Each structure stands twice: as structure tokens, then as C-alpha cells.
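Hydrogenase nickel incorporation protein HypB
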Amino acid sequence: MCRVVDLQQAVLARNDEHADRLRAELAARGTTVVNLLSSPGSGKTELLELELATARQRGVPVAALTADLATENDAVRLARSGAPVKQVLTDGLCHLEARMLCGHLDGWLPEPTRLLFVENVGNLVCPASYDLGESLRVVLASVTEGEDKPLKYPTAFGLAHLVVVTKTDIARAVDFDEGAFRANVAQVNPGVEVLLTSARTGQGIGTLLDRALAAGDGAPVHRPVMAASSAHHHS
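C-alpha cells:
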């Protein structure tokens, strides 16, 4: 068992080295990485499409890389925004790693790109442990997933710089208790901002973009308590 733990720590340590190098290289060219994590079906692809379109309307140079185990469906959807998009198929791997991201960006990322949104594999377990060189880590949950989601996935929510609630247009229909959700988020990540959004009504659209641009401009980013005690994550 100890050897398994040691191996995992070694893998994460190597990933951290790649992530730090990638963060520095992208910062030097003025690019900020936003890592989006969620369960399958959270609505993050639809939200990201709208954020990319908003960025294009504002004249902000953005790009997106989307990861899935199979199909290029999400890349096709995101490309409708007009932003440069690349699909990454992980061949069964349940998360992206910084080394993989480096390989896919090499020779592809357009100049200039102010923001690079990375849509991670739909999974709140494995991706939570891997730094991708991001400056902003965003965890999304839809109103249909239950108010206790942050307690079930404390690492994912506990290391987030921003939490986004999606599909708020149906919150009443599914009896979503916003107060309970916020309390549960605060339990694992005190002080993190919770942003309410709806791709259908437009609620909150553009705010994620605002937060990402601010982070890229050097504005203070929320520092999760859990990150301070996590040996494998840099906030």
C-alpha cells in the first residue's frame, strides 16, 4: 500500500513540475489558463460556449481545449463561438495532466491568446489532483446534482478558486436549496465565491470571463484553505 501511495505522490510531483513550467511559459506570452472541472451533464460545455462567444464579442482573444474519453462533440459545439478550439481524446484516462496539455498546445495555441479555457474530463475525482498550470480553477455543479455535492467531492470543491452553479432557470422545479449549497461549499472552502448562472436565461453570463480576465491581470485570486495543506496543488 505504501508503495502505491509513494508512486502516486511521485506522479503528482512530476505533474507539478510540468504545471509550474507551463504556467511560467504561458504567463510570459500573456496567456492565462482557466481549468474547468465538473461531473458529466453539469452544463459546462454550454456555459463555456457562451463565455467564449462573449469574449469574442468583446474582442478578447480566447481559445479552448476540451478533453473527453471519446467523440469530438464538445469541440464542435464550442467552435460555434468562433474561438479556436482543440479536442483532446484521453484514450480512457479520466483526467488531463500538465504534460499532456503541453503536448497539445505546442504549435497550436494561437498568438495572441489572452485566456485559454480547459474543459477537463467530466469527473470530480481524478482531475482534482492535477494542476494544469492554471491561474483560475473553476468547479461547476448544476442545480440538479444536489446540495451535498461539495461534501461528497471535498477535494474538487475545496481547491476551487471559484464555484459556479449552472441551470438556475430550473432551480425551483427541482427544489434546489441555494442556502444549503452555499453552506456546504463554505464548509469545504471558506470564502470562495459562488456564481449563479443560466445558459438559458443569460443569468451570470460573462462573469466567469470577467473573473478570468481579472486573474490574468494580477487581481488577487481566492486562496483555498485546503491548498495550503495540499502538497500537490499550487493556488
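Residues 102 and 203 are 34 Å apart (CA to CA).
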